[in-house]
Write a structure and sequence with these properties.
CATH topology: Glutaredoxin
Number of helices: 9
Shape: globular
Largest sheet: 4 strands, mixed
Strand order of the largest sheet: 2-1-5-6
Number of domains: 1
CATH class: Alpha Beta
Mean pLDDT: 90
Order of helices and strands: EHEHEEHHHHHHEEH
Distance between the termini: 11 Å
Number of strands: 6
Structural class: alpha+beta
Amino acid sequence: MRTLTVYVDVKSPYAYLALAPTRALCAANGVAIDWLPYVLDIPSYLGSARLDPATGAVIESARTEAQWRKVKYAYMDVRRQANRAGLTIRGTQKIWDTRLVSIALLFAKRVAPPRVDAWLDAVFAPFWRRELDVEQCSVVEETLRGVGIDARGFAELAAGDGARELERVMEEAHARGVFGVPSFLLGGELFWGREHLPLIGERLAATR
């Protein structure tokens, strides 16, 4: 079966918006999806900030005015798209460290490949409702159990070889030209952004 490789990061609302249309496209074309983690370094291009959870006021910021304008526009845009798709996307109150949940994706792929899609939904949806702390190992472990994945061994992986395994995946992604999410690889050709899904669909249809 043909495969479309898709890089995602839970802290990217654009990756969240891409889940359902990517699945629909691949199902329509008889294509398997190889989901892979890619941990975004948001401060490197958008600066960083932290909000007060109670008031939403900025309590710490390392962003320029231009970066703030980009961030505000991005959330306005994704909310428009989320409303069309019936999804909830609430602005995050800090830049989350998603290495742990990225390791969990690698773990889920290894121990229960048929449950990966269900697990992605169980992570992305509550995260964007501000209901999931993806930096807590016990919380991430519970997301695995919640979709029927045997989580035994996950904590050990996260505390040990998981970081090195994730680093290898990131190095391979960079070698392939990946720099953001969602990114799609089809036959060695790289596409960045879900707006390229129609073109990917054309490529798939042409090679049936």
